[in-house]
Amino acid sequence: MSAINQHIIGLSGHIDHGKTSLVKALTGQNTDSSKEETLRGMTINIGFAFLDKGITLIDVPGHERFIKNMVAGINSIDYALLVIAADDGIMPQTIEHFEILKLFNIQDGAIVINKIDTVKQDWLDLVVDEVKDFVKDSFLENKKIYKVSATNLDGIDELRNDLIDYKYIKNRNDKGVFRIFVDRVFTSKGFGTIITGTITSGQVKIGDKLKILPQNKEVKVRGLETQKEKVDRLEIGNRAAINIQTNEKLSIQRGNHISDSNYFSTYESAIVSIKILTKIKNGIKNNERLRIYCGTQEVMARILLFNETSINPGGSTGAILKFEKPIIVSVDDYFIIRKYSPLITVGGGVILELNIFKKWKDN
């Protein structure tokens, strides 16, 4: 079977606002698959479910401690569903997740107010007004607000039908060469190693020889699958399960990058454009140690500002990032910046230039 035209929808929002329950109501599939997630009643890892053959739903954790998993799931979506519980309204991770969506330049989506069965109409009206004010001047302004209950299924049919019929716009920069960031790895008896991820550029076929980074080793595509169907080719925007074959035993993990050979590499520094969020308490200082999230990678880095000692909230500038370990990036890749401690999202940016051969000087 050939490639299937697919769209990726990401659900984001505060913990316990019902993202996983909403996915189950829409698809009948429970994305909390691990024992720990079931026992704790929260999503920890990234979950996936299929609305139909062309639409994948990605459920990301709402707890602040798992923002790195949220970023790994949300960085490659076409459409965002911002889920807000009617009884809580806008909460801290609602705000943080929404800021991350904007920093990743997500252009399309909708709002889902869940748990409408738990509140009265006058309270629901107040929440709707609060949400409209919250998304003003953003990509979600004037987008549809769905009022649903994942518990008694109110509004679920309308939401499902609209998502299936929607005319999606691809939110991707196709570089013309195949690349995918690994978000899960597992082994299957008789098949070997299988990685999953969302293809962010190009296409891949069975038999292709590819390069895995940062290991810088050759792998061969043994099999391809999407939405539990075997295919012979996959392309940009597809959710992919790739059975890879190697000549030697490799340790593969989330954050690894698989691509056509001779196109991508690892880097220890990059020139970037960064933007600091307006509503945070403090900006960032020159030479500050930061957490950088790009694709499914998390890497520590130092920042060198150009002719500035700090960037205040709401500010933007060019800078150099020096990574503490090699990172796989390309020009025009978006990334998120979080403080080393406390763990809060402070901004994001885009890669402008690589191959920097300048002496790093701590101030």
* Principal-axis shape: globular
Instruction: Give the helix tally.
Output: 6
Strand order of the largest sheet: 2-3-1-4-5-6
For the secondary structure, the number of strands is 24
Strand content: 35-45%
Distance between the termini: 57 Å
Computed over alpha carbons, the radius of gyration is 21 Å
Instruction: Report low-confidence residues grouped into runs of 5 or more.
Output: 32-45, 62-66, 359-363
- State the major sheet: 6 strands, mixed
Would you write up a description of this structure?
With 363 residues, this protein is an alpha+beta fold. It is built from 6 helices and 24 strands. A 6-stranded mixed β-sheet has the order 2-3-1-4-5-6, sandwiched between helices. The longest helix is centred in the middle third of the chain and has 14 residues. The radius of gyration is 21 Å and the shape is globular. The C terminus is likely disordered.
Please outline the helices and strands.
Blueprint: E1 7-12, H1 19-27, H2 35-40, E2 47-52, E3 55-59, H3 67-74, E4 79-85, H4 92-103, E5 109-114, H5 121-134, E6 145-147, H6 156-165, E7 179-181, E8 184-188, E9 192-201, E10 203-205, E11 209-213, E12 217-226, E13 229-231, E14 233-235, E15 239-245, E16 257-260, E17 266-276, E18 284-285, E19 289-294, E20 297-305, E21 310-311, E22 316-328, E23 334-339, E24 345-353
Parallel strand pairs: 1-3, 1-4, 4-5, 5-6
Antiparallel strand pairs: 2-3, 7-9, 7-16, 8-9, 9-15, 10-14, 11-12, 11-16, 12-13, 12-15, 17-22, 17-24, 18-21, 19-20, 19-23, 20-22, 23-24
